[in-house]
């Protein structure tokens, strides 16, 4: 079964037995063992490589990877001759880690939510939705790393966004924001790729104004114009956008002027011991001045002590997030009363 867009990855079941077909152009690059039984179909102009078990398939793929053919395309045929195009590398990753493949296909994960408060009023402003697998032994980082190697990162990112919207509908009261991470590299044509997300928002009857889509902190942005297009697509649908890791993931504060996000999250490295280190204080004050000029709100993440909390509160940072305020959990907090 294929998704509507090839860029979201092809959902496919690897059969116990089947065949791989290769075009002669790819075949000529292979160091093919004489022991392999291959057939050439003159009419289809394809070579056929049968495999008798998943382990047989893995061995075949490993031989081809040794020839540095990671990105070459093949077609996997099951017993019903269903053709599923995929690269050798992506097929190999899915074959050697079927458990992780299944988790993504079946959407076997949920969202934990971490509170974000208004530092002045101490009221809950919203929550960040954080992906958790139902199998506690598999971390989100491990799952996203595998998805990248297996060509499933767009599919996982899309399903994670859906799970976050569902969590908002079920757990977060109307009027409180839900921050949802996204990978810009998985959104090729925003007007098309985000249709699924917008349909999910309507399906769960969530107010678009309650959603804040933020760039994942590990994502390295190289095409600012593309990110700006994504932001504008979200904003045109009535949703908010946030820029993560200012001071770390982005080289200059000038990026704020180009992207014009609603909210900027300040990297936790600048929050840790901010009450003690003048260099961090100077940076935070510069960010605040720039944000005020552009009408952008600031959110300090990674607050872990009361001293950090009070310094940020006294110096006018609007919102805060971190273990001092609340850890991620399946349900929302009732109130914040630690300070």
Automatic annotation (TrEMBL):
Organism: Pontibacillus yanchengensis Y32
Protein name (database record): Signal peptide protein
Domain EAL: 93-339
InterPro entries: Cyclic-di-GMP_PDE-like, EAL_dom, EAL_sf
UniProt lineage: Bacteria, Bacillati, Bacillota, Bacilli, Bacillales
Top-level lineage group: Bacteria
A GO molecular function held by the record: cyclic-guanylate-specific phosphodiesterase activity
């Amino acid at each position: 079964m294929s998704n509507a867009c090839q860029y979201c990855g092809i959902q496919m079941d690897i059969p116990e037995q089947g065949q791989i077909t290769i075009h002669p152009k790819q075949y000529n690059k292979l160091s093919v063992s004489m022991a392999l039984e291959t057939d050439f179909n003159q009419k289809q102009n394809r070579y056929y490589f049968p495999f008798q078990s998943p382990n047989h398939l893995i061995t075949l793929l490993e031989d081809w990877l040794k020839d540095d053919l990671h990105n070459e395309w093949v077609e996997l045929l099951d017993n019903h001759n269903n053709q599923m195009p995929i690269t050798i590398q992506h097929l190999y990753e899915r074959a050697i880690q079927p458990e992780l493949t299944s988790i993504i296909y079946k959407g076997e994960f949920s969202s934990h939510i971490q509170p974000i408060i208004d530092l002045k009023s101490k009221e809950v402003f919203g929550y960040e939705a954080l992906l958790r697998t139902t199998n506690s032994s598999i971390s989100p980082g491990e799952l996203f790393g595998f998805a990248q190697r297996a060509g499933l990162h767009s599919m996982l990112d899309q399903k994670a966004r859906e799970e976050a919207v569902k969590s908002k509908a079920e757990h977060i009261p109307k009027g409180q924001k839900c921050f949802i991470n996204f990978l810009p590299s998985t959104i090729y044509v925003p007007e098309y790729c985000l249709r699924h997300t917008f349909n999910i928002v309507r399906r769960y009857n969530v107010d678009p104004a309650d959603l804040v889509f933020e760039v994942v902190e590990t994502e390295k942005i190289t095409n600012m114009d593309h990110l700006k297009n994504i932001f504008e697509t979200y904003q045109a649908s009535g949703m908010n956008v946030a820029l993560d890791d200012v001071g770390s993931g982005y080289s200059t504060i000038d990026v704020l002027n180009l992207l014009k996000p609603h909210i900027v999250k300040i990297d936790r490295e600048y929050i840790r011991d901010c009450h003690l280190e003048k260099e961090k204080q100077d940076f935070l004050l510069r960010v605040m001045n720039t944000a005020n000029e552009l009408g952008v709100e600031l959110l300090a993440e990674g607050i872990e002590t009361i001293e950090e909390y009070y310094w940020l509160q006294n110096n006018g940072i609007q919102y805060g997030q971190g273990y001092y305020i609340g850890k991620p959990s399946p349900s929302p907090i009732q109130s914040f009363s630690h300070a």
